[in-house]
Structure formats: C-alpha cells, structure tokens
Amino acid sequence: MNSTSEAKGDSNREFPAIETTLLRIVVVFRIVGAAWLTSLAVLILLTEKPRIDLTQRTVIIWSAIGVAVTWTLVTLVFAYRRSAVLRHWWFLIIDLALAAWVAMTPGLIDTDIFFAGGYPISSPFLFATTRGITATIAPALAVAAASAVGVNAANARALEVLTINFLSPLVVAWGFGTIKTQDGRRREAEEALGVERDKLARADERAEMAAHLHDSVLQTLALIQRRAQENREVTRLARRQERQLRAWLNGGPTLAAGNTLSSALIRAAEEVEDEYDVMVEMSTAGDHELDERTSGLVLAAKEAMTNAARFSGVDRIYVLSETSIGLLRLVVRDQGTGFDPDRVSDDRRGVRESIVGRLERLGGTATIRSKVGDGTEVELEIVVSAE
Amino acid sequence: MSQDIRVFIVDDHHLFRAGVRSELEDIVHIVGDASEVDAAIEMIRERVPDVVLLDVHMPGGGGRTVLDAVAQTHPGVRFLALSVSDSPEDVIAVVRAGARGYVTKTVETAELAEAIGSVAAGEAVFSPKLAGFVLDAFANALPADLDPELDQLSTREKEVMRLIALGHTYKECAGRLDISVKTVERHVSSVLRKLQLSNRHELARWAADRRIV
What we know:
- The complex is a heterodimer of chains A (387) and B (213).
- Chain A has two domains: 2-194, no CATH class; 255-383, Histidine kinase-like ATPase, C-terminal domain (Heat Shock Protein 90).
- Chain A is built from eleven helices and five strands.
- Chain A has helices at residues 2-8, 17-47, 54-80, 89-108, 122-131, 134-150, 158-227, 232-250, 261-276, 292-311, 346-361; strands at residues 279-285, 316-324, 327-334, 365-370, 376-383.
- A five-stranded mixed sheet of chain A has the order 1-2-3-5-4, with helices on one face.
- The longest helix of chain A has 70 residues, at 158-227.
- Helix content of chain B is 55%, strand content 13%.
- Chain B contains eleven helices and six strands.
- Chain B has helices at 14-24, 37-47, 62-73, 88-97, 109-120, 128-137, 148-151, 155-165, 170-177, 181-197, 201-212; strands at residues 6-10, 29-34, 51-55, 78-83, 101-104, 125-126.
- Chain B has a six-stranded parallel sheet, sandwiched between helices.
- Chain A binds chain B through residues 211, 214-216, 218-223, 225-227, 246, 254-255, 258, 279, 281-286, 316, 318, 320, 322-325, 331, 333, 335, 377, and chain B through 12-13, 15-16, 19, 23, 57, 59, 84-85, 104-109, 128-129, 131-133, 135-136, 139-141, 162, 165-167, 213.
C-alpha cells in the first residue's frame, strides 16, 4: 500500500525514499562545494595580486560565489520539498549551465587557485541521481571541459581535472543506479511478501471460520437430527444443510463431486436420501473410475436404494461397495419388511427386472435375497479388467 | 443397560454435552463432563469412569491428547469416540490411539447406550461407518515386506466387517456366518488390534489420500 501511494503522490512528492536519500547526499556535497568555493574565492580576493583588471576580477569572483550560493539554496529548497522540479530537464539544464559557468571562472581571472572546487561536479551528480548513468555522460563531459578551461592553462593539472571531473559523476551514477535497482528489488520482494501474507491471513480466516462452523452449526445440525424423529422434514433439511456445509468447509470439490464410482454412488445416495427421507449409510472400500459399465452399476444400485426407501418401511439403508482386483461388488441392504421373491407384485417385479436385467446387460450378476419380515439384500457384481 | 456403568463425557460443545447427558441419564451413571482437554484429563483421572465418550474434534490438541494422557495413568478407562464429522482419517486416528470404537453423533440413543455397554464390557464397537473405513484401509494389496499377521485382515474378519458395514448386529453376523457371538466379538477385537498395531504403509497413505479429498 505504501509503495503505491508514494508512486501516485502529487508532483511535489514524487521521489521514492531511496532517491530522496541519494539526493540529500548530492545536496550536502553541493553545500560543502559552495562553502569551499566561497572560502577559496575570499582567499584570492584577500591575498592574490590581480593579474587582470581588479574590478573585472571582483565581479567575476562574486558572480561565481553568487551563482554557487544562490543556486545551492534553490536546490536545497526543492530537495527539502522533495519536488519533482529537480527531475525536470529545464531545471537540470540551467543547473548544468550555471555549474559550467562557475567551473570556468578560475580561468577567466587567471589564478593559480582553482577555486571552483567541488561545486561544478555536483551538477552531473544531480543528473546521476535523477536521470541515471546514460543521461550523466554529456553533463559530466561538459563540466569536465569547463573545469579544464577553468584550470590555469599553464598548470599541468588540466588533464587530471578533466579526467576526474568526467569520471567521478559516471562512477557516482553507476553506484546510485545499483543502489536504486537493489532498492527496487527489495521493494518488489516486500510487496510479494505482503501479498503472500494477505493470502495466508485469508487462509487462516477461512480455517478459523471452518472451525467455528464446525463447532456451532454442524454440532447443532447433529443435535437436530438426533431430536427430530417426530419431524422428518426437519431431519431432511438438517441433513441437506449439513451436506452443503460440509462441502463448503472442505473447500473445493468434495468426494461427492469427483468422477469415480464412489463419488457417483455418494451422489446417488444423496438423491435417494433427499427424495425419500431416508438415511443411507454408505461405505466404499477401494474405488474405480467411472465408465459406461460402472455408471450402469451405479444406476442399478440407485434403483435398489430407491426400492428399499419406498417399500422396506425403514428409514435406514446400508450400502457397501468393494473394489478388489478385477471385481466390483456392491450390496444394498435394508432391515425392513422384506418380501417373498417368488411372489412379488408386478410393480416390484418391474423394478427388480430393471436391476437384474441391467446387470445382465453389463455382463454381471444381481442377486436379490429377501424374506418376509427379515429385510432385503441386493448384491450386484461385475467383473472389470484388472488394472 | 446397566445403571452402574460410569460414563464421562468430553465434548467442547455445550449443547451436545447437555443433550447426551439428558438422554443417557436414566440409562447410565454419568460421573461428569468436560469441555476442555486439560480439565478432561484431570477429572477423568480423579473420577476414573468406566467409559469416556470422547469427541474426536476437541480444540487444544483434540481428543487424542486426552486419550494418550489417560492411557498412561489409567489404562483401564475405555474410550468410545464420537464425532460429528465422519472424515475417515480422524476416526482411524483416534481408534489407532486406543479408542475401543466409534459412532457418529447422529446415532440414536438406544444405539449409543448399547455401544457404551459393549465398550464397558471390553468389547470393540464397530459402527457400520467404521467397518467401512476399515475395509477401505485394508483394501489395497499387501506390500511384500509387511507382516501379514498384522497388516491384512483374514477372510473371516473381512466377512464380519462387511456384515457390520451393512448394518448387521454382532448377533446377526453370528447367525449369517454360522458362528457364535463370542467368535464374532473375537474377530472384531482382532481387527481393532490390527488397526492399532499395524504399521501398514497403506494405512498411512490411505489416510493421507483421504485428507486431500
């Protein structure tokens, strides 16, 4: 959040923190340079015998002092206000022109003392801070050339001044550039860390909410189901609510949403539970992918569950599906009224045929065991290719 | 059921504790209840009930902490796990930690009372759900390097588990398999022992797989 507001701030406060720091270094360097220039210039005025016209020399020296001190103050004010003005090309060009002028003044008065000092070089430093290394080359060259002119021609230091004044801004620009890049990387890393932290916080929140819901809502739903034998509708609602909540708590697709035999069986059981207000106790040992044949098996199992729900007279149905190598075995059982398989009424025979017939078409077997008063058990088996 | 079975209830949900208490009060002797792990351990050690009804999902380390702590000092106290969530890995975990059985919280009062009686008598209580979980856990083929004595179910044990998963009582199992109820109980106890002692890699992997689901 901090970084974005910094970047979007008004034009007076446009600098990222690291650039403000670097700018402060440059401004301090400039203040020191201006002070050094002033003291050397005063020294010249007091001690050196003028080699050109005295008035002319006084004017030139004071113009250098005036420019350096005044412009240093201007820079200080803008830097203090973190003003974007310091980045503007027109400001930098004026800055450079003034620095070049100051650098040349020692040559104009033919002095042995190169009193321009460090002030001129602070201008390419400013370029280095706000505009990077490429933009620093030309100003560095300009100031270096002006300084070389400013050094008394008789003095052999001209080349030295040229070299130092040209190279040091480039070195500074490179150093500042490195610092800025690293700072940028650090801030990116911090931002990424922040995003990650937010994500974690959200996950925590979800876990906490899940724990809370588990402790309150699910427990209450369990209670309702225990106490609501008189009111079957309440049980049904509670069961449906419990299922939805469980799915949500688990986050993402649950077993019931999967594409396997077990998932399809669970879905079928849930449909029967909802439609006929019964409870299906489902156990699945092992699993198998859902294909044409296993889908058929699920349909037959659902038929058996529906049968049990409609005719058995009890509200609990047990289902066990077992997948072992090569064999799928599925049993649907109720402890209800049962019937005599030899003397079934026509509607029941129809359903029964649909189970037995379907299994035959799938190349499997269906066995229905029932006795009056002793429940019903439907066993479905199909052979699948061993994996 | 016998009025002199001493039962302790550990559940962090007040409503549920109160509900179970009022339902069971006439059937068993409820010696106390607790909603927190530490308090539960302390009170169980002090009152030494026959059976502890233990919610699988307790905050602060959960039911397992209570189980482990009590088992160290009072190995005679038996645990029956109760849970509102039927996530298999949680259930298998408490059974492996020493619970003598598991029922879901939607169990009817009579069934719960019966289960308490069985656990008090030292039997294992396998609800249809737990039997299904066990079959699933032992369903995979056995890796060669494991002890078949511990790491797979015998044919008879599998048959018993199947019948229980289909809602048969022990007595009905005995009738179906033409064996005595005592033998059924022996098979069930043996399955419980295998579940607790087996180092079957499959069991761990199975639990991990389920966790993802």
